[in-house]
Design brief:
mainly beta; Jelly Rolls; 2 domains; eight-stranded antiparallel sheet; 1 helix; globular
């Protein structure tokens, strides 16, 4: 039979072992709780908050980047999809072959400044390109600066060189470019919402012919026609071409539907419809 001193020593050993396990596990539990909390309330930098009467959205810090989340999963005519810039709430996409509709859901502070956050469905291509789609926003109350886009990008980084045709929730369309990685975007704007009340372009297109890139529009179903002069931007093949959407709200999802999408590896096809 063990004497009293031996039994006490064994009891103290068990207590110390339990205490050691608690000290080992506690930090992991705290980190898990912090991650869960962050997941329910995503942290959004102040600069990324949308403009309002009391706040102005400004460019991100020069050294701010997030790696994109890329998925080599084909969807419709596209080879893969990405959350460019990894918005704090992941996006999603689906395709209905019967209606020929792509439904893109995304958060994201913007597709602008020196980096982007948006859901992107893409195909690797080279040479000339024609891309066009009908655009609708299912929720009429979405943020005014949300935008559905047709994009040519050199790569999938958040600050990639790119040319983009976008349609905003207000009806404004534009042809924009980021001429070098990390540069500020510039654009040519064509505003319909303010001057022609209730007019939203039914169909938008982008065409790459050599280094010349132009925007095409059909306001009410008339034949597609070019708006304004082209921009000139060189892309090394292969590059990425596809459709995207950004809610313009860093942590709030919204949806755009792009339908009857045509994507051809030649110029002059934007005017075609399906």
């Amino acid at each position: 039979m063990e004497n009293y001193a031996v039994r006490a020593a064994r009891k103290n050993y068990r207590r110390l072992r339990i205490l050691g396990l608690i000290l080992l596990i506690a930090p992991q539990m705290l980190r898990a709780q912090a991650s869960a909390s962050a997941g329910t309330t995503p942290a959004v930098p102040d600069w990324a908050q949308p403009g309002s009467d009391t706040h102005e959205q400004v460019p991100p810090p020069a050294d701010f980047h997030r790696p994109s989340r890329n998925f080599d999963t084909p969807i419709g005519i596209f080879q893969g999809q990405s959350d460019i810039g990894s918005a704090v709430v992941p996006g999603s996409a689906s395709y209905d072959a019967e209606t020929k509709q792509y439904t893109l859901t995304s958060a994201g502070y913007n597709i602008w400044y020196s980096r982007d956050e948006f859901r992107y469905l893409w195909k690797k291509m080279s040479g000339d390109v024609s891309l066009a789609a009908d655009v609708t926003f299912p929720d009429p109350k979405g943020y005014s600066d949300r935008k559905a886009v047709l994009v040519i990008r050199q790569n999938l980084n958040d600050d990639s060189k790119e040319a983009m045709t976008g349609e905003h929730g207000t009806g404004m369309i534009h042809l924009a470019q980021r001429p070098t990685p990390g540069a500020a975007m510039t654009d040519m704007q064509f505003r319909f919402g303010g001057t022609l009340e209730g007019v939203m372009a039914k169909r938008i297109g982008i065409e790459k012919r050599g280094d010349a890139i132009a925007i095409f529009v059909s306001l009410k179903g008339e034949p597609m026609h070019q708006f304004g002069p082209p921009i000139h931007l060189h892309f090394d093949g292969p590059f990425y071409v596809g459709i995207g959407f950004c809610s313009h709200l860093p942590a709030t999802l919204d949806t755009a539907v792009l339908s009857d999408v045509i994507l051809e590896d030649s110029a002059g096809k934007v005017r075609e419809t399906k």
